[in-house]
Design goal:
Blueprint lengths: L8 E2 L2 H11 L9 H24 L11 H18 L1 H5 L10 H11 L6 H23 L5 H21 L31 H30 L5 H16 L7 E2 L1 H9 L6 H16 L9 H11 L6 H10 L1 H16 L2 H21 L2 E7 L6 E3 L12 E7 L2 E2 L4 H18 L10 E5 L5 E2 L1 H16 L3 E5 L3 H9 L2 H5 L4 E2 L2 H18 L1
Parallel strand pairs: 5-7, 6-8, 7-9, 9-10
Antiparallel strand pairs: 1-2, 3-4, 3-5
Helix pairs in contact: 1-8, 2-8, 2-9, 3-13, 3-14, 3-15, 6-7, 6-12, 8-9, 8-10, 13-14, 14-15, 16-17
C-alpha cells in the first residue's frame, strides 16, 4: 500500500525501547506476562489506528513536529539507555530495574555486583561483540562485503549456540534462552483490551509510538527514494503503516516500522520493489516453523551483544556537531531530547524536544526580521542594506521589508515599534528640520501572506503615529489575501487612496513625485 520500493519492515530499536519503557510502568512482564502482552497488542492496535487516521486525513505534517535535530538527540539518548540495559544480559544479572533513566540503570548495575554472577556470560558476550563490531568496520571499508555485517549476527547466534551446547556452559552459569514457541503467530484478537483502567494509557502510548515509528519510516523511505530519484508519498506511507500495525495487533505482533539497517541491506542487495518484504516474511515464517527449537541453547549474552553492536549507528556525533554549527536553537532541541531520554524518560525527552521546537517557531514568529532596503545601483531592485552595502538609500524615504508570513497579534506590535524606532533614529541623525527628515515610510509586504485584525490595527496605529510626525505611509507588493482583508477593513481609505502599490520601485517613484509636487506648491 505504500509508495517506497526499498523500505524493509520490522521491529526497530527505538520503538522497542519506547514500548518497553512505557508499558512496564503499567504492567510488569515478570509478574504478569499475560496482562503485559495484552497491553502490548492493544498499544499496537491504537498505534496502527492513529497512523491510518493520519494517512486518511492527510495529517503528514504532524510527523514534522519531531524535527531532525530532535530525532538525532532522541536516538542518541535512546542508544545509551538501550546499551546500559543490555548489561543485564551481558553480565547475567537476575534482578534489574524496569526504569529507563541512566541513574536508575547504573544504580541497579552497581547494586547487582554484590550478588553472585557468572563471568562466562561477560566473556562470551564481549567476544562476539568484538566480532560484530569488526564485521561492521569491514562492511564500511569494503562496499563489496556489505553482506558480511548483515549476516554477522546470524553467524554469532549459530556459533555461540554451538559453543554452549557442546561445552554444556549452561551448567556453569551461562544464561540461555531456553524454549521458544515455534509456528505461525496465533490470533490475538481476543487479547485486545478496550475496557478497563489502562485503555487511556494504552491509547497515549499508541499515539507516541505511532508518531515515532512514522517519523523513522518516512525518514528512511525518503532517504532511499532520493537516491533512486522518485517521490515518496508520506500520506500513503502512513496509511500502509497503519493497516500493517492493525493487522499485526490481531496476529500477536508489536509495533513495526521501516528499519534503516534492514532497508540499507535491502537496497544494497539490489531490491527493486516491495516484493522483497514478501520474501522476508516467507523466510521468517520458515524460520519460525523449522528453526526455533535450535535456539534453546542460545546464550542471552549474545543477544545483548547483537543489540550493543547496533547502537553506535544510533549515536551521530558528527550530525550533532553539524547542528551546533548551523543552528544553536536546533542544537538546544537536540540536547533537550538527549538529556530528557537519558535522565528522565522517553516521554520527557520527546516532550522537551517538541517544546523547544515550538518555542523556536514562536520566537521566530514573535520577533520576525524587519529589514531596511536600498536600491542596487543601475537597477530597480531593492535589497537589504546590511547584506548589500552598495545599496543606495533614497533620501527622505524609509523602505522596510517584513520577513514574516503572518502579520498577526503575535508580532504586530514588535513590527510597529521597530519601524517607529527607525523613524526616530533617522530624525535624531538629522540636523535640520526638513533636510534628511523621513517624509515617507514604505512597507514591502511581499513576504506577508496573511494578516489578521491585530495586524491591520497595528498598521492603522503606525499610520496615525507617522501622520503626527507629518510622515506618510505606503504599502508595496501585498499578496492577494492581504489586499482582500485590507479592503474589507477599509484600510486604503484611512491611509489615502493611491497609497498601495504593486512594487517598491513604483511606491518610491510616486513618493518622489509627491514630494516634488509639494515643493512646487510651496
Amino acid at each position: 500500500m505504500g509508495s517506497s520500493r526499498e523500505i524493509a519492515i520490522g521491529p526497530v530499536a527505538v520503538v522497542s525501547l519506547l514500548l518497553s519503557s512505557m508499558i512496564q510502568k503499567i504492567e510488569d512482564p515478570a509478574t504478569d506476562p499475560a496482562a503485559y502482552r495484552k497491553i502490548v497488542f492493544t498499544v499496537t492496535f491504537f498505534a496502527g489506528t492513529f497512523q491510518a487516521v493520519f494517512g486518511l486525513f492527510r495529517l503528514g505534517f504532524l510527523v514534522d513536529f519531531l524535527s531532525h535535530a530532535a530525532i538525532v538527540g532522541f536516538m542518541g539518548g535512546a542508544a545509551i539507555v538501550i546499551g546500559l540495559q543490555q548489561l543485564k544480559g551481558l553480565l547475567g544479572i537476575s534482578h534489574f530495574t524496569t526504569k529507563t533513566d541512566v541513574v536508575s540503570v547504573l544504580e541497579s548495575v552497581f547494586t547487582s555486583i554484590d550478588h553472585p554472577w557468572c563471568p562466562l556470560n561477560f566473556v562470551l558476550g564481549c567476544s562476539f561483540l568484538i566480532f560484530l563490531l569488526i564485521a561492521r568496520f569491514i562492511g564500511r571499508r569494503n562496499k563489496k562485503l556489505f553482506w558480511f555485517p548483515a549476516i554477522a549476527p546470524l553467524i554469532s547466534v549459530i556459533l555461540s549456540t554451538l559453543i554452549v551446547f557442546l561445552t554444556k556452559a549452561d551448567k556453569h552459569g551461562v544464561k540461555i534462552v531456553k524454549h521458544i514457541k515455534g509456528g505461525l503467530n496465533p490470533s490475538s484478537v481476543h487479547e485486545l483490551q478496550f475496557k478497563g483502567q489502562n485503555v487511556g494509557q494504552a491509547a497515549r502510548i499508541g499515539l507516541i509510538s505511532a508518531i515515532v515509528a512514522l517519523t523513522e519510516a518516512i525518514a528512511v523511505g525518503r532517504s532511499f527514494a532520493s537516491i533512486k530519484g522518485y517521490h515518496l508519498d508520506g500520506n500513503k506511507e502512513m496509511l500502509a503503516m497503519g493497516f500493517m500495525n492493525i493487522a499485526g495487533s490481531l496476529t500477536s505482533c508489536y509495533v513495526a516500522t521501516g528499519s534503516f539497517s534492514r532497508t540499507a541491506v535491502n537496497f544494497s542487495a539490489g531490491c527493486e520493489s516491495v516484493v522483497s518484504n514478501i520474501v522476508m516474511a516467507i523466510t521468517v515464517f520458515l524460520s519460525l516453523e523449522l528453526f526455533t527449537r535450535f535456539l534453546y541453547y542460545t546464550p542471552i549474552a549474545i543477544l545483548a551483544s547483537i543489540i550493543l553492536s547496533a547502537l553506535p549507528g544510533l549515536i551521530n556525533i558528527h550530525e550533532a556537531y553539524y547542528i551546533w554549527k548551523v543552528d544553536k536553537l536546533d542544537f538546544l532541541a537536540c540536547i533537550g531530547a538527549f538529556f530528557g531520554v537519558l535522565f528522565a524518560s522517553v516521554e520527557i525527552g520527546l516532550l522537551a524536544a517538541v517544546t523547544i521546537s515550538f518555542a523556536k517557531i514562536l520566537l521566530n514568529g514573535i520577533r520576525p526580521g524587519v529589514e531596511e532596503l536600498g536600491r542596487l545601483p543601475r537597477t530597480d531592485t531593492y535589497c537589504d542594506i546590511n547584506q548589500y552595502p552598495m545599496a543606495i538609500k533614497t533620501p527622505g524615504i524609509l523602505i522596510v521589508r517584513v520577513n514574516s508570513a503572518l502579520l498577526c497579534f503575535a508580532n504586530a506590535s514588535f513590527i510597529r515599534e521597530r519601524i517607529m524606532r527607525w523613524v526616530t533614529e533617522e530624525e535624531g541623525k538629522s540636523k535640520e528640520s526638513t533636510k534628511g527628515r523621513i517624509q515617507v515610510v514604505i512597507i514591502d509586504m511581499s513576504n506577508v501572506t496573511n494578516v489578521d485584525t491585530a495586524g491591520i490595527l497595528a498598521l492603522e496605529e503606525l499610520h496615525k503615529k507617522l501622520m503626527s510626525r507629518e510622515t506618510e505611509l505606503a504599502i508595496a507588493n501585498p499578496r492577494w489575501q492581504v489586499i482582500h482583508k485590507l479592503k474589507l477593513a477599509k484600510f486604503g481609505e484611512r491611509i489615502g487612496r493611491g497609497r498601495i502599490f504593486i512594487t517598491v520601485d513604483e511606491a518610491v517613484a510616486a513618493s518622489i513625485s509627491s514630494k516634488l509636487t509639494s515643493l512646487n506648491n510651496c
